[in-house]
Hints:
Elements: E1 4-7, H1 18-26, E2 28-33, E3 41-46, E4 52-61, E5 64-72
Parallel strand pairs: 1-5
Antiparallel strand pairs: 2-3, 3-4, 4-5
Amino acid sequence: MFEEIEFNKAAFKHKINEEDIRWAFFHYCYDGPIENMENKYLRIGFDRSGNLLELMYNEIDDHNINIFHVMPCRSIYYHLFSAQEK
């Protein structure tokens, strides 16, 4: 389980606040590697208002991650929700 979350300044480009990003990171419905990109992962989760967010992150080590992209979830990812069980 990740203990520390670091944020790249680009994570806030779409004006989503840190509390909603953290909430979405831990309340997710999909998590998986990004195809053809080493150590980059996509997680789709719900913010505190129930909106879907897409988050992209790197694993720094076994306990730490760096979130570098967050925005409202695009429809191109909707098919992933039923593709994975937690």
